[in-house]
Amino acid sequence: MKNNIIICLFIAIVGCSTNDTADDTEPSNGPEVLNVLPAKVKIGDTIGITGNNLDVLTRIAIFNEKLTHSNEHPFIVEKNHFITHTENEITLKIPWLNHEEVTIDFKNPYVNNWNLELTGIIPIRHEFTKIQEINVVNEDLAYLINDFNVYKSEDGFYNWASIFEGQVTAIHFINETTGWISTSSWEGTANFYRTENGGDSFDLVHSFNLPSVRKIHFTSGSQGYFVSSEREPQMYKIENDSFRSIFDVYPNLNEQGLTYPQIWDFTIGKNNQMFLLTSWPLDPLIKIDNQNITLNQFEAPLIEPPQILNNTGYILTEKDLYKSSSQGDSWVKISSFKNYPQYVQFINEQIGFAYIRKNPDSPNLLQTTDGGLSWTTYYEFPGFGTGHYQGGVQDFSTSNGLIGGGRSLFKYKP
Questions:
Q1: What is the C-alpha separation between 187 and 210, in angstroms, rounded?
Q2: Residues 81, 136: one domain?
Q3: What is the pLDDT, as a whole number, of residue 25?
Q4: Which residues of 178-200 are buried (b: 16+ CB within 10 A; e: fewer)?
């Protein structure tokens, strides 16, 4: 009798163990994903999922696991939105996503998640109100001014933290740790603050009797340049604890016959060469190399100062793009645009982008891969309306760029 009881218990235990194992076993006709291509995609691209018994999959979730925003949810693609759906293949379009690292969840316990890489233009999910300036330091680190406050991102531009509040009008970092901001006050004073720890703290280093500053650029820890926002704007040079008008630093500027000798914008090129624009749009482009001054006259008003990459430079008039192969000494028109571009910026001497506004609600980003000779549409921004995307600030200083305007921010990832 005792032996019979033991045998029955053994059979019962083995039977239960066998049933538990059977419940975890993948069905013989279960789905199997063998590949997802391409591995690098853009928003709107079509991906192909290949395998076996895929016709049993009815919904697919596409999301990113790293975003910390509380309102981030997976994008669910139901089977009625699959482009094709057969036993061996599913095709679907990549939806609007907010991160370059993409996870595909097939919503089936027997199919592992699949990872893709999102490239091109990526919308950044963040509640900005008015983006005024962007400063990209490297592929992970960037700063921006939003509604006169400074924000910092250290994770490839996806999450942002406020690091300085209070009427900030300009910003410039020369490396990961050292940077300057300028603030304005009701008393008509422009204050300059410097950080040596990546924005953890800022120290007041200069106060100037100016209403505000619209642009700053430092070339070392003690030397920089800025343009004021006065009714008649001027450019100044900061050196140590003093500042002087650029017309005092370079007296030959007073002899160039400028219509309105007020400097509105500038860029710093190779070997600290400077390129200046006056507030009169038909004045020539001014190049300063040491004490040597070169003037270049263009047929139409200049939109912005040139961008200089090694010996090659690009500059934009109302509808025409000019190129220089002599560090800005001379310029040749190489292409024209049908619509008025708001800016053109190059990543290298071959690849560049032009921001075009066909109408206020639907701006486009054009791309060139042949040094500006030809342009094709790269991305059409959604029709957010003029209140949402007012457009026009960008920084492509590194291979990863940022485009912003109004309340919207977009990342470019090659």
A1: 9
A2: no
A3: 62
A4: bbbbbbbeeeeebbbbbbeebbe
Residue 211's contacts (CB-CB under 8 Å, 6 or more residues apart) are 184, 188, 190, 228, 229, 230
User: The tokens of 69 are what?
Assistant: 């925003």
Counting Cα atoms < 13 Å in the Cβ hemisphere of 18 gives: 6
Smallest CA-to-CA distance from 316 within 338, 298, 293 is with 298
pLDDT band at 23 (very low <50, low <70, confident <90, very high): low
- Six-digit token pair at 17? 């163990």
Residue 4's Cβ-count burial label (10 Å; 0-12, 13-18, 19+) is: exposed
Domain that residue 296 falls in:
122-413
Residues 315 and 329 in one domain: yes
Maximum separation of any 2 CA atoms in the chain, in Å? 120
CA gap 264, 278 in Å, rounded: 5
Beta strands in 166-304 (DSSP E): 168-173, 179-184, 190-195, 203-208, 213-218, 223-228, 235-239, 242-245, 263-268, 274-278, 285-289, 292-296
The residue to which tokens 């009625």 are assigned = 80
DSSP 3-state helix, strand, coil percentages of the chain (rounded to 5)? Answer: 10, 45, 45
List C-alpha distances in Å: 74 to 70, 170, 273.
12, 37, 49
Residue listed under structure tokens 């934009």: 316
- Over residues 263-311, the pLDDT tens digits come to 999 999 878 899 999 888 788 999 999 889 999 999 899 999 999 998 8
The distance of Cα 54 from the centroid of its chain, to the nearest Å, equals 38
Among the three residues 79, 101, 118, which one is the final residue of a domain in this structure? 118
User: 22 lies in a domain?
Assistant: no
- What torsion, rounded to 10 degrees, do the Cα atoms 314, 412, 132, 138 define? -80
How many residues make up the chain in this entry? 414
Judge if the upstream peptide bond of residue 284 is cis by omega within 30 degrees of 0: no
Contacts of 271 by beta carbon, 8 Å cutoff, 6+ apart: 289
